[in-house]
Amino acid sequence: MTHPIKPPVSKPQKPSPTPASPSPAVIALGWLHTAKFLTTAPQLQFLPALDVPEIAFVGRSNAGKSTCINTLTQQKQLAFASKKPGRTQHINLFSLGKQGVTDAVLADLPGYGYAAVPKQDKIRWQQVMANYLVTRENLKGIVLMCDPRHGLTELDEVLLDVIRPRVEEGLKFLVILTKADKLTRTEGAKAVSIMKLQAGGGEVRLFSATKRTGIEDVAQLLWQWAHPDIPEPVSTSA
Ligand SMILES: Nc1nc2c(ncn2[C@@H]2O[C@H](COP(=O)(O)OP(=O)(O)OP(=O)(O)O)[C@@H](O)[C@H]2O)c(=O)[nH]1
Ligand SMILES: [Mg+2]
At 236, is the secondary structure helix, strand, or coil? Predict the structure, then answer.
């Protein structure tokens, strides 16, 4: 007696899950993580002319510019941060871009307002900075770092006056209220409302490197500034 050979029963195939696409924040942070030191210069004239968007971090000495760049790029010592004010004395550029293709640059600028700096040096530096902010052709956005416990200083106001015409022409502008870990929630909210009135139409965000507040939000904003033709970040493999 022969037994019919049963055909093997194939299990019903589950549809293979499509990998979830990374969130805009993950894409923006991944992009910032590609940051590499590009060059340093004591003055604008020594900076290379570039044709990719440049985003400058400015603000009074010790406000937290270098720390903010290190936090956003998730690199501990990309920019020199220090308890000692006046640590950053050159314009330092960092290139960003996946697969080795630079698509934007971050600029860490020396802080102003440090009392111990000789007057002549202060004036010289203010001129270097004003020159940079007014004439740097590929400058796409300015991030003004401000410690909300001190508010805007006189030199911050000077800077706002210098950049106002360019902001009116479309230059992106963000005020980061730093060291938010030093404020209560209510103080933080109040500082944001006050700064929104002072920032002349710019964006305002609370930020803390220690508590990691505002990192994703700021990262996404910078990503959008550098990629204005792409409305939402799209998934790209590194
Ligand atoms: N608590 C707290 N401290 C911070 C934060 N960000 C920066 N700091 C501290 O503030 C000090 C100054 O930080 P830097 O990043 O060097 O400041 P900077 O604006 O680059 O200063 P200059 O280079 O002098 O213009 C350092 O001691 C940092 O650790 C923050 O979010 N929270
Ligand atoms: Mg610095």
Answer: coil
DSSP assignment letter at 212: T
Q: How far is the CA of 178 from the centre of ligand 1 (A)?
A: 9
Which pTM value belongs to this model? 0.88
Helix (H) or strand (E) holding 220: helix 215-226
CA of 103 to the centre of ligand 1 (A): 27
What is the 116 CA–ligand 1 centroid distance (Å)? Answer: 17
pLDDT tens digits, 183-222: 999 999 999 999 999 988 899 999 999 999 999 999 999 9
Domains of the chain with bracketed CATH: 24-226 (3.40.50.300)
Q: By CB neighbour count within 10 A (0-12 exposed, 13-18 middle, 19+ buried), where does 99 fall?
A: exposed
169, exposed or middle or buried, with CB in 10 Å at 0-12, 13-18, 19+?
exposed
Q: How many Å apart are CA 63 and CA 50, to the nearest integer? A: 27
The contacts found for 155-162 with CB under 8 angstroms, 24 or more apart, are 155/60, 155/112, 155/113, 155/126, 156/59, 156/60, 158/126, 159/58, 159/112, 159/129, 159/133, 160/198, 160/200, 162/130, 162/133, 162/134
Q: Coil, helix or strand for 225?
A: helix
Atom 6, ligand 1: residue with shortest CA distance: 64
Q: At what angle do helices 24-32 and 215-226 cross, to 10 degrees?
A: 80
pLDDT digits (tens, 9 = 90+) for 121-163: 778 778 888 889 999 999 999 999 999 999 999 889 988 999 9
